[in-house]
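S., here's the first fold you wanted:
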Amino acid sequence: MADYESGGRGVRGIRVVDYRGKWAAVTYVNGKRQRTSLGFDATAANREAAEREARDLGRQLAAPVNDTVGAIMQAYLADSRAIDVARLKNAWKALEPTFAKLTPEDVTRDACRQYVARRKRAGRQDGTIVKELNTLRAGLRWHDKNTPAIVETPSQPPPRDRWLSRDEFQRLLDAADDTPHLRIFLHLAIATAGRKEALLDLTWDRIDFDRGFVDLGRKPNGKRRATVPMTDTLRAELKRAHDVGSCSHVVEYEGKAVTSVRTAFSRAIEAAGLDDVHIHDLRHTAAVWMAQGGGDNVVEKIREYLGHTSLATTYRIYARFTPGYLRDVAKALELDRKEGEG
């Protein structure tokens, strides 16, 4: 099971064992072995519940000795199973100068408003500031569900709805001709609808040329990502990249895995003459194209591609792009209809 370390106190190697017919958690706290009963009979049926209790115990033992926001957030980041831990760490880097030395009681609306003003002076947009403060809120609630902290955020801006036409995407591909690692990234993004982190983490052992599938692996929290079929275009690009590659990762540069395509992407966007395009817009573009292609149960299939937990979320975002969306009921609004027509 997971290790925890925070607040000057280390919790190492916590695991569940059978002790005299009961499940117990065994760990080392500051180098000393500690065994704690979890209150369940040591049966296979109780194992999962016991492991949940052990994880909760690990977090409790790792709780900061001093309850400053800084200590709490360091513990939260160490325990986080979020998809993009790097994003959380970047958010805390921005938050730290303002909040690290405070206690949760000191996190007030006024403190948050001062933070918002400072970040706006630094040129940050409301969307970025909201994400940063939401990270603070999540960390404080992880530490104490009834935290006295009051985290106030700016109004959430409307969600982005930027997607690329096929002509725009082709221009972007053309601009990436001299940047092989970006070119294969773009092909993967549009053909798998995968997130940036999944594509940069992709290794050749998860490319199944025989069956024609790409396995996007697992998220940091252990949840499986999608396994999606290769398009013919992607297969050709992957074959080409595999023939010249010298790294276990699909997206590589000079024999090493690429950890960021931000700079190359920005240059290609500029060269292609495109405006207001973010890397994540490629995933949205892929989903829009799938919706526009139509077919049976297309929204449900898009959900599988994107890995959405809720089908309602996929419908809300992408149903309007499908052919014939609401056209059947719109016929009832025609002005030349006669009374009594069904």
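And the second, which I think is the more interesting of the pair:
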Amino acid sequence: MGRFASGPKATYIPTDETPQTAQGRAIDRLSTLPWWLIILLLLGVFLVHQLSSNEPYVTAFNRVVNGIGTTLLVTGVGYTLAICFGLVAGLGRVSKNILIFNAATLYVQVIRGVPILVQMLYWSFVIVPLGATALNALGAWLAPVLGDASFLVKIQSRDIDFMWRVTFALAFAYGGFEAETFRAGIESIGKGQMEAARSLGMSYPQAMLYIILPQAIRRVLPPLGNDLISMLKDSSLVSALGVREMTQEARLLAAANFRYIETYSSLAFMYLSLTLILSLFVRGIENRWKQG
């Protein structure tokens, strides 16, 4: 294809661009746009408009916000404990001690084989009551000897709030997954580095603490960040035991006024906003870690 130049004598000037190629380029440009982000922004604008002008949406949003503190508390405490459990179990998974290795492996396999909600129920209604009974027995046994162990006898399972029960259960569950993450990170470091550290006179714990773990944590930081976001979403499971976090607040409101669209749209908007903010926070930490 080409075009004719204007003038006394028309000249044909060939061009490389045809209507078809121009259309193809336009389609290519459109295909490279972040449509997922555009759709999310449009939905966000719509929901923000509803939350500022629609009374049922405003009521639902305010009720959901009441549970945001509990959601963040469960997530923060649970994830901190999960990192501790996972690191200990991950070190056990690479240990050459048979007892430690098998104990860590048993923990990981049980956690990975039982649903998180079932683990929460088991911790809340089985392990906590059994633990309280065991502490009562220990207090009764120590009282004649020490005389100051009577507080153990007074411990009752009903005194332990369900929020702390399910938070610990969630942390214990995620600890099993973090254990495999730490194990993979430790095993990705060349064995020669451990041998070199030992040859310099370091003990095994020193070499692991100062040489292996810093490199392993740098490598497993992305999956650890993803697990933090996953725990924020899975914290909604604690609503099954009546903990008043965002999901439970939304369920109670919807059961009272039957405004399901407004209530659960507000709930979904809150979770999506929190996960997006947390994703940006995790990505910022990853970038700083890489630069450092």
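Why I say that: The two ends are 55 Å apart (CA to CA). Strands lie at 2-5, 11-14.

Talk tomorrow,
H.
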